[in-house]
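User: Design a sequence. Structure:
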């Protein structure tokens, strides 16, 4: 699938993988990108990048990706502007890392479990929100095809669009990430289901599982942890670069023969 003439929505677009994916798609000639982020800095970033490429590609939207009202308002505006949204890369994410059950030796042997509120926050942002941004995208294509009297896709038409979820190597299980790992594993189930359903409208659905990437979220783990725990278990002995992950995302969208999961993990092999 070529990106020319396509419209995409990318969440978490102000930094990390989301921002890198915006830039990669712009370089590939995409028509328009809804750049969604909770930070108002996305507005200035869009203006700067649009100026650099000499055309208005990025359309900024500021809000909470977990809000149904905000999501619907973004898609209502996109329908008004473009009619159809063909591509979705829901890249917004958070971590709330700590052990699932923690024993306090210095507190009389007390034990506490992972806070439910943190678990629910991670599920909302990393699992539920990505799924619903993807569903809204698929819905715009379905509506357009119904209007044109051709709801069921035929291969001769070529791929109509694509969804790429951002999974993680943590989906296989990772110490201290009970909520994050669960959310990312859940996305794999959503991807496998939508891959079967959305192709009815000509939309492919894949998932990419990045290793530890040089993003603000990973840097927040602390330089000592990155150096002592993460890098020694990575064959490349470095963090991935966001643009490397973005390149893999665009590869999944453009090469229709590649389906399912793509692991971009820099040779990540965690210790038991």
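Assistant: Done.
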């Amino acid at each position: 699938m070529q990106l020319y003439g396509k419209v995409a929505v990318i969440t978490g677009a102000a930094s990390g993988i989301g921002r890198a994916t915006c830039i990669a798609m712009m370089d590939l000639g995409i028509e328009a990108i809804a750049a969604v982020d909770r930070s108002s800095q996305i507005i200035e970033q869009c203006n700067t990048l649009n100026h650099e490429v000499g055309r208005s590609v990025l359309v900024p939207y500021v809000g909470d990706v977990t809000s149904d009202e905000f999501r619907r308002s973004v898609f209502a505006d996109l329908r008004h502007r473009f009619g159809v949204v063909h591509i979705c890369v829901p890249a917004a994410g958070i971590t709330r890392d700590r052990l699932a059950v923690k024993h306090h030796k210095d507190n009389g042997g007390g034990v506490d479990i992972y806070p439910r509120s943190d678990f629910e926050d991670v599920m909302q942002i990393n699992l539920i929100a990505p799924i619903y941004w993807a569903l809204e995208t698929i819905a715009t294509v379905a509506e357009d095809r119904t209007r044109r009297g051709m709801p069921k896709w035929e291969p001769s038409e070529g791929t109509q669009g694509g969804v790429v979820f951002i999974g993680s190597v943590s989906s296989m299980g990772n110490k201290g990430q009970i909520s994050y790992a669960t959310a990312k594993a859940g996305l794999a189930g959503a991807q496998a289901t939508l891959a079967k359903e959305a192709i009815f409208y000509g939309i492919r659905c894949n998932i990419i599982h990045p290793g530890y990437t040089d993003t603000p979220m990973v840097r927040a783990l602390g330089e000592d942890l990155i150096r002592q725990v993460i890098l020694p278990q990575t064959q490349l002995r470095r963090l991935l670069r966001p643009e490397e992950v973005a390149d893999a995302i665009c590869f999944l969208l453009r090469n229709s023969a590649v389906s399912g999961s793509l692991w971009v993990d820099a040779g990540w092999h965690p210790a038991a």
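The chain is about 45% helix and 15% strand. The mean pLDDT is 93.
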